[in-house]
Structures are given as C-alpha cells and as structure tokens.
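Weekly modeling sync, notes
Attendees: S.R. (lead), two postdocs, one rotation student

Agenda item 3: backlog of single-chain predictions. S.R. asked that every request posted to the team notebook include the full sequence so nobody has to chase files. The rotation student volunteered to paste the first one in as an example of the format we agreed on. Action items at the bottom.

Example entry:
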Amino acid sequence: MVKVEKMIRVFKEDKSLEVLALFDTGSRRSYLSRNLAEKIGYERLREFKRIPLDVEGKYAELVGWAIVEL
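Predicted structure, as returned to the notebook:
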C-alpha cells in the first residue's frame, strides 16, 4: 500500500495551522478531525451530514467547514 502524505496549511479567515495530511487518491472528499476543526475555528453546521467513507460500512459526520490550501 502506498501512503501519500504532505504538510499543508489549513486556513479559516485570519487563522491558519500547518498539519500533516494523508491523501486518499480514490476519495472524492476531504476530512478534518474534530480536534483540528476546533483549533482552526470551523463553522459548525446546524445539522450534521452523514457521509459514507471508502471503507465499507463506515461513515463520517460532517459538522462544519474550513478552507484547505494545498
């Protein structure tokens, strides 16, 4: 299995954090951990959205958003 990692900077208005990102070349979406989202000051959605992951039977909950620059 090939692992693709890169340091990226995550932005939210005047805040930014440099983090190590793991890239899934087969994924159509990107995710941040709740811990990182809270540190950067994400915008919480009124209701979470359940999102299927690439692992069969596994889901994530979309709770907010932030801007990621690669």
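Discussion: group reviewed the output briefly. The longest strand covers residues 43-52.
Action items: rotation student to repeat for the remaining queue; S.R. to check formatting next week.
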